[in-house]
Amino acid sequence: MYRRPVSKARGWFGWVLWAVLSGACGYALQGRGTGSLSPDVRVIAIPPIEGVLPRAEVQQKLTQHVIQAFVARTHRRIQADPAGADAVLKLEVQTFQVTPVGWTAQGQAQTFQVLIGLRVRFYRVPGESVLFEHPNWVFRSQFSVGGASGDPYTDPEVQAIDELGRTLAQALVSAILEAF
Fold first, then answer.
1. Residue 165 sits in which domain range?
2. CA distances from 94 to 8, 59, 139 (A)
């Protein structure tokens, strides 16, 4: 097979062109850019999520996953009590809807669309100066139930709630930290 020789100048030009074009991919973080909290916010209070939820596991799992996501992303100390905290993250569920969107051959609901609307308020203590606020932050996701784990002793709804909580917490913490 015949290969046409490439001059060194054309080779270098190609590398330079690639480097210039790949550096301008168009991706950028929204917000003010740093993606991290002020260093003087060392302790964050995250009390249990408020609002009416269909199962106690939903409130527990959502609160647990929001705390874990904040610890992983900010490396700050988290506590439930606002006393002694530098900032407070208050979450209130306003909307919680679960709608079946997929069925088994037997006609049982298997895939669900979930919509959760949260009132989010992240503020400094004392003084309650707002760091981040959203009156109706909406999270949508789909999940399936049906014993995918193969474990007959594990409730598939609890597994779905756990996965949903993890995904919601990651999205919520990203949205909050993008504002900084």
1. 40-178
2. 64, 13, 12
96 pLDDT above the threshold of 80: yes
For residue 3, being part of any structural domain is answered with: no
Distances (CA, A) of 22 to 11, 13, 153: 17, 14, 50
Q: Note whether residue 161 is domain-resident.
A: yes
**0.90 exceeded by pTM:** no
| pLDDT tens per residue across span 53-86 | 877 778 888 999 999 999 999 889 999 999 999 9
Residue 102's CATH number: 3.30.160.150
Alpha carbons 164 and 142: distance in angstroms, whole number: 8
Strands 109-124 and 130-144: antiparallel
Residues 110 and 103: their CA atoms lie apart, in Å, by 5
Give percent helix, percent strand, percent coil of the chain, each to the nearest 5. Answer: 30, 30, 35
Of residues 3 and 80, more confidently modeled:
80
Looking at the structure of the chain, the number of domains it has is 1
